[in-house]
Amino acid sequence: MTATQEAPPLTPDITVAPVMKRPSKRLPFPLVYWQTAVGKKWIMALTGAALMGFVFFHAIGNLKMYMGEEDFNHYAEFLRDLLYPILPHTVALWLLRIGLIVAFGLHIAAAASLTRMNQKARPVRYQSRRDYLAANYASRTMRVSGIIVGLFLLFHLADLTWGVGFINSEFERGEAFANVTYSLDRIGVAAIYIVANIALGIHLFHGAWSMFQSLGVNNPRYNGARRAFAAGFAVLVAGMNISFPIAVLTGVVG
Amino acid sequence: MNLTLKVWRQDGPHTGGRFETYQAADIKDEMSFLEMLDIVNERLIEDGREPIAFDSDCREGICGTCGLMVNGQAHGPQKGTATCQLHMRTFRDGDEITIEPWRAAAFPIMKDLIVDRSPLDAIVEAGGYINANTGAAPDANLIPIPKPVADSSMDAAACIGCGACVAACPNSAGQLFTSAKLNHLNLLPQGQAERWKRTEAMVERMEQFFGSCTNHGECQEACPKEISIDFIAYMNRDYIKAKIKNRKLQGQGFP
Fold first, then answer.
1. What is the ipTM of this complex?
2. Which of A93, A95, A203, B81 is most buried, with most CB under 10 Å away?
């Protein structure tokens, strides 16, 4: 028996047919959350929190750039040796990477499926102009900013992790500092980094607040702090990330 | 004052609609929005034309029957006010007012500005009953309820079920309505026995009809009873718990 609590059947008083199909078979316990929109929002919030942790520590790590080539490369090498000798070289790093790939996958899959649901919920749009009161630029462009960040992620990996020839022809494995300074010294690439990080900041501004609401972390005493946290986090992460291309272009680094 | 109205006209559920323009002349400041429409309709009838169909009942903001999209805002520009309590003094002479019905897949248009909101009833229906002892009325205050709990529950119970939250939501989500209906019972000691069963059933019924919340906060701005989106957070928390609690209640334990 996997069902927990089914809603009773609809009575004839309900003159509108259901718009969404509910799954006919319930999955076993933790997977059942994937079958509902509220559960998917929880998954989006939890994976979002994990990804926020990643972007934060990624930016903190990259601040070593300001300490010079030796420190930066040493830090890059340290990441490969994380938890060594408990685990062999790069194993801890790969475990973290797998976690990130899973988090990205679930975050994007949940977003895509909820977007489809929302489109089905209002097939005919308002024919007059809507006047939004609370929805801000960030909340209404989550899908666009998310796609920009996702595409940038692929570009960033191709540029500085895989070293794809036509994006970063001077790429040399293990020379993290030389790679990043070469890449960001090109004005076009620097512009891509800056634009993508502005999109990331906008995405975080709504996401970091929205996360609390989706998880039900709500207490009238601290609700003001949630907005402040989201704004602070978005500015901090985007600010650190945007400083790198500017520092390389102006010659502060490299 | 003299106004120009752009009103959505639609003959039936399955026909297309269009905006039609009407002149509303000599409208008084102290009229309510619906009284203004009554005047326009009387003149339409005098001219032998079809009056504009719209829903209304109590006209004092407590029944939840009225509801129009006025200039792109659910229930019009005044905060915490249903359409029937919106007065014409909020508009200026010469204004053009656009009036549209609620739009959502779950709220099909019946005629002009009237929509079928029975999916909201479907959610309440899914909630079922609460246990209460019958017989003589119990003494007042027999069950002690902390003041903040009573206040919060009362805030949720203020929901009149007009559907403005769904109409205002960019995703047509029914979260504010469902969370208000859930929390006015879930917070009180009387509602505890069926709390988890009710939460699961009502949320899943809601998801048969409405979209998913993306935390814009439009619903609480549109709500004529100013119900807070804090209740949505409580509902999200209770729903995840309900999945675990309901298994426990069936003796399945965790995990």
1. 0.92
2. A203
